[in-house]
Amino acid sequence: MTDHVLGPDELLTTTRSVRKRLDLTRPVPLELVRECLEIALQAPSGSNRQGWHWIVVTDAEIRARIGEYYRRSFEAYQRSRPPAEELYPGDRDRIEVQHRVSESAAYLGERMGQVPVLVLPCLRVPGGELPEGNQAGLWGSLLPAAWSYMLAARARGLGTAWTSLHLVYEREVAELLGLPQDVRQGALIPTAYYTGDTFRPAHRAPLAEVLHLDTW
């Protein structure tokens, strides 16, 4: 638990994706993860189905194997991405930020399997096949709970990051974890104590650039 009690606005604006500052050597008590998940279970879900399931991985060998799948997927993703200079031509500030993000993402890509706890939020999907078309309702029954988990972790001195690149190997990871056919993975959330505590609101584009009243 952190010594500094976070108010709701500070909690919401300083819960960052933690990658390079995850403490890979300090064990995370399972009871602390359970506390965060108990809070996550209070999130809303479509028709109150509560169809979520949570895979918490602490076994070193399983973490390493999941980490290897993630590393492969991240390297392929990294090769496919254009450089920041092409994405944001002339915007030096944004280019510098993206370089830092890319560097930290690469750091985690190499070390995902070393993170003390890996949490995989999952959903039961009838037949195991994702529906065609708009899936907002489906994943909208899982993402609020996953975000609540991440907020609860932040309030307790734990860092997390939302990742999903392992889903390129979703079937292989499902077999590794013994998941039933109708259980689909939504994300992979590394969880560890973080080093330092200088989290602050991130720079974002002004609200005026993305707010539309009544019409576009």
UniProtKB/TrEMBL annotation:
GO terms for molecular function: oxidoreductase activity. CDD domains: Nitro_FMN_reductase. It comes from the Bacteria. InterPro entries: Nitroreductase, Nitroreductase-like. Residues 14-183 form the Nitroreductase domain. Keywords: Oxidoreductase. Signal peptide: none annotated. SUPFAM superfamilies: FMN-dependent nitroreductase-like (SSF55469). Belongs to the nitroreductase family. PANTHER family: NAD(P)H NITROREDUCTASE YDGI-RELATED, NADH DEHYDROGENASE_NAD(P)H NITROREDUCTASE XCC3605-RELATED. This is Nitroreductase. It comes from Thermocatellispora tengchongensis.
